[in-house]
Amino acid sequence: MELAIITERNADSTVRTMRSTTQPPTEAMAAQAEQLDIDLRTKMDELERSLRKKGLLEKANRKGSVQLWYAVGNALSDIVDRYEIRGPRYRRWLWDALDNIPAGEDLKRARRGRTRLHFEYCYRLAQFPEDLATRMNWSEWVYFFDSPTVREEPRADAWLKRLIESETTIDRRAFRRFSEILNSHIKRRDTSVLSEDELFAQYQAAWEEMKEEVGAKP
Q1: 6 with 99, same domain?
Q2: pTM exceeds 0.70, yes or no
Q3: pLDDT higher at 1 or 181
């Protein structure tokens, strides 16, 4: 796969930083990166106008609306698919580009360290069916995606889809407590060495422990 993304420009609009899978990038890759840069500006401007028209960018909604960030994630998914941007490393280049282009300012969030990537969270959220995604608040999604045990483990989302589909209701505080238990069990363990069945067993054990703990409270 050949991919190049302009992640930062100088004040005079010349390219300051270009990330690419081939070093140095070919002319064709550089040309595609320029087209992607144009597309990103257009897409973010159009998306911002559309969301504002729907009322999703009103101040009351902007911080914690699942509907808002799900819509953003859908738009990002379209870009990822169109340009065949595969894997979290390359998506990280895309998020850097979005943070630095002069477009879609109301869709951005200040970074809280290198691990919290707002656009990555929006993207991951949009991989869930919308009716499942909206069953939890944005703060719970952020807490889950922030968790060290799932931040670099994409299979966590597949397990969570199964969980949300099987549970009639999911209490916000219970889900947050589950994330805490999961983190305490797995900590900094490299889960990539686990099979899917082994990994899901870890998640399920943490979920069952949370249910027992919650059920034991008066």
Answers
A1: yes
A2: yes
A3: 181
Q: Is 176 within 8 Å of 213 (Cβ atoms)?
A: no
User: Is 93:7 a contact under the CB 8 Å cutoff?
Assistant: yes
Q: How many CA atoms lie within 13 A of 62 on its CB side?
A: 11
Supply the range of the domain harboring residue 137: 128-218
User: How far is 191 from 168, CA to CA, in rounded Å?
Assistant: 28
Instruction: Give the amino acid at 97.
Output: A
For every residue of 154-175, DSSP letters joined together read: THHHHHHHHHHHH-S---HHHH
Q: What is the pLDDT of residue 192?
A: 84
CA distances from 5 to 11, 38, 206 (A): 18, 11, 39
Query: Quick check: helix, strand or coil at residue 34?
Result: helix
Strands 4-9 and 15-20, by their bridges, are antiparallel
Instruction: For residues 8 and 101, state if they share a domain.
Output: yes
Domains held by the chain: number: 2
